[in-house]
Specification:
alpha/beta; five-stranded parallel sheet
Length: about 500
């Protein structure tokens, strides 16, 4: 299973020495109480680490640069307990390179009506200090998340937790390497893009490898390892022979087991966490990787079909962001296939030729072996299932030539009205917000692709925060979307992101 670091987030409190040592002692004590409470809440997915109160430009700069160099630091949470002169933060902010959250809170929840005096006012003036600090961050044009409210409120805790998942995605984005085992499908536009600009913007490395290099790894896999993995498959999944000879069926399954083992070893050796394949360029491989890719996605690898490296990287990114999330329902590569246009039952049937991640499965997962009309190879084995019901987001990262755009559509997944016994692939069925007609028209107007990185476990806000931090355009399609409003938004964005 691919894993990322066990990140920690630094809690940095701003103040000054104008009000004396006793005030600074209170500031530090209050910050420690808040940090302990955050860590004991059970809501945050990562540990928060208290840092000494920042009262000088030199200390702020030193702390921020230490955060830059600490591989376990996932970001900084800042809070101005008292008034902290904002010019003290300039050098530190200029040199800081990791995610930033501004927690606009105060230690006390309620005004102490009977005892409040000027000493209390001077010590507890977050409403003052956070505005001074917020001004300089805005003036410097630094992207950050702002969360306002009392530090103990459940909603505030949930928002900090959500930001942490996004922050890890931002830090880990620079560690994503995509192995392209084939080029983009001929004459297809949407899967193309500027790989150099993607590395500049997102930190992704997208490198091509001859498909026969990975094929050599596959051919070198020991028969005993293949047999052991096939046995695991047969214990874990239902076997749907559907009239095929059991031994012949098993041989087809064994090919996928061999591909899974060989491909994973190759990816580890070249330090790649996402892959693309193409049915038209399989080299000496006997089958298009199907079950093998599904299993690799389940382990945390990103995937994109027909050379779609942008979606492969996004799937990996979203799997990183949801790693360890309680009650996670799954993340997968998906493709828009065909519609149901019956009034009241509208939706899009989502699938792909083979490669849908089993993390999104609801109920039983089965193995089928069926012909594939493309690729001129053996009938590939694949996992088949239907996806879970519930809310999710479908995202599409597109290259418009002058800029990247991330399109995010809220969708509602539900079961298809009837079984589809002749369809030998995993499926999802969803209705985009605000409706199929408006959602589809908006997606097309925004230039969205037919491939998506889909998840049940992240919100549009989280992915939008990621896009904002990366400095790219975001287009939201949700319950509030209208065609008139979307067209205007696209016009404004064309000016803003020129």
């Amino acid at each position: 299973m691919l894993e990322c670091k066990n990140y920690k987030f630094w809690f940095c409190t701003g103040s000054q020495d104008l009000y004396g040592d006793e005030c600074l002692e209170h500031v530090a004590a209050h910050a420690k109480i808040i940090v302990d409470s955050l860590n004991q809440s059970g809501v945050l997915p990562y540990e928060v680490v208290w840092k000494p109160t920042l009262i000088t430009s030199a200390l702020i700069r030193k702390t921020f640069n230490e955060a830059n160099l600490d591989p376990e630091c996932g970001g900084i949470i800042t809070w101005m307990h008292t008034f902290s002169p904002a010019k003290s933060w300039i050098l530190g902010l200029q040199e800081y390179r990791k995610p930033l959250l501004h927690l606009h809170t105060q230690f006390n929840r309620e005004l102490p009506y009977d005892t409040i005096d000027m000493d209390f006012m001077n010590e507890n003036q977050s409403a003052h200090g956070d505005r001074e600090y917020g001004h300089i961050v805005s003036r410097m044009g630094i992207e950050r998340k702002v969360v306002a409210g009392h530090w103990s409120d459940p909603q505030v805790l949930e928002r900090i937790a959500a930001w942490m998942y996004t922050a890890v995605g931002l830090v880990e984005s620079s560690h994503i390497r995509v192995a392209r085992f084939a080029d983009n499908m001929r004459n297809v536009a949407v899967t193309e893009g500027d790989k150099v600009e993607a590395q500049v913007k997102f930190g992704w490395e997208i490198d091509a490898y001859p498909v026969n290099e990975v094929a050599a790894y596959v051919e070198a896999v020991a028969k005993g390892d293949v047999d052991a993995l096939v046995e695991e498959y047969y214990k874990k999944y239902n076997i749907l022979l559907e009239g095929r000879d059991p031994e012949e069926f098993k041989r087809h399954v064994a090919v996928q087991a061999q591909i899974e083992i060989g491909m994973e070893k190759f990816l580890k050796d070249v330090d790649c966490q996402a892959i693309v394949t193409h049915f038209g360029d399989l080299g000496s491989m006997k089958q298009l990787p199907g079950l093998a890719i599904q299993r690799l996605m389940e382990k945390g690898y990103g995937f994109g079909g027909e050379g779609d490296w942008k979606t492969a990287a996004m799937v990996r990114l979203m799997k990183i962001m949801t790693q360890g999330m309680k009650g996670a329902k799954g993340t997968s590569f998906m493709e828009d296939y065909t519609y149901n246009l019956i009034p009241g039952k509208e939706g899009i049937l989502e699938s792909h030729m083979l490669e849908v991640c089993p993390t999104i499965a609801d109920g039983d997962i089965s193995i089928k072996v069926n012909p594939l009309s493309m690729g001129d190879r053996e009938d590939p084995a694949r996992l088949v299932f239907t996806a879970k019901e519930g809310h999710g987001i479908a995202t599409s990262l597109v290259d418009l030539g002058t800029r990247f755009r991330l399109i995010i559509n809220d969708v509602e997944c539900r079961k298809a009205e009837k079984p589809m016994p002749k369809l030998p692939v995993a499926t999802n069925f969803w209705t985009p917000e605000p409706s199929l007609a408006t959602g589809a028209e908006s997606w097309i107007l925004a230039g969205g692709a037919h491939h998506t990185a889909f998840t049940y476990d992240l919100t549009a806000e989280q992915m939008g925060d990621w896009a904002d931090a990366m400095g790219i355009e975001t287009v939201y399609i949700d319950k509030n979307t209208t065609i008139r409003g979307l067209k205007n938004e696209l016009r404004w964005n064309a000016v803003a992101f020129r």
